[in-house]
Amino acid sequence: MGLPVTITHRTDPGRERHENQDSISHIRDERTGLDLLIIADGVGGGACGQVASRLAVQTIRQTFFALLEEVGEMGERLRRAVLEANRMILQRARGDRSCKGMGSTCAVVVVIEDVAHLAHVGDSRVYLIRQNRIIRLTRDHTRVQRMLADGLITEEEAANHPERNWLDRALGLREDLRVEVRGEPLPLEPEDLLVVCTDGLTGLVRDDEIFRILRQMPSEEATDALIATANARGGPDNISIAIARIGTAPPTIR
Questions:
Q1: How many domains does the chain have?
Q2: For labelling alongside 25, which of 50, 111, 173, 197 has CA 20 to 30 A away?
Q3: Can you give the CATH number for the domain in which 198 is found?
């Protein structure tokens, strides 16, 4: 019997966008005891961004569960599900000329038997909050992240770089997509928090601020507070966040 998991999620269009191109899905499979959490951030403008993110979430969810009997290794199941989403988005774009070039990020988390499995493409992120620190579990697939990794720019320069949202990797950009899957499952502990979010949040709210808010409030209040913070700073993009709270202990103020 694994630790109990409580999932809270919310998405908000922000203050400048008329449409919301983000999509979120959470499913708890009672038969296997797993929680599947997916966040996608559409690219391509207007309705096409919405189409891409929704198609990503739907395809990953359906393919993942369709592979339950065929593929036993969780990481490979996630990889195949994300690749299928990439194929479906490319196929849809080819069939609808108005949506040519549409794409989506995705971040996928599976929690089962006290461990988490992760896969992602793009700049939607997954964090772990444990005790007194926040740990980023994913690496942005952006041009600026690559420049930062190569030592060409500093963290401060990266945060304000004009090309910080330029994606190197996303669903729908190319057929030979390389999905980043965590090699080993992440062991979970009571009071851990897994945070999945789009760049509409992380582009405006620092990691230490995310940590502080999530350690001081219950999950539902924290999601509201984080979205309100991003909107108070202009809210130029859609904002989505999901929180998986491991165990039943209440949050403590630190």
A1: 1
A2: 173
A3: 3.60.40.10
Range of the structural domain that residue 89 is part of = 5-246
In a domain, 60, yes or no: yes
pLDDT in tens, 88-139: 999 999 988 888 889 999 999 999 989 999 999 999 999 999 999 999 999 9
Q: Write out the two tokens for 254.
A: 């630190």
d(CA 176, CA 202): 28
pLDDT tens column, 142-187: 877 677 766 777 776 667 666 666 788 999 999 999 999 999 999 9
- Whether 171 is in a domain gets the answer yes
Contact 125, 196 (CB under 8 A): yes
Find out whether 221 and 183 touch, Cβ atoms under 8 Å. no
Does the residue 254 lie in any domain? no
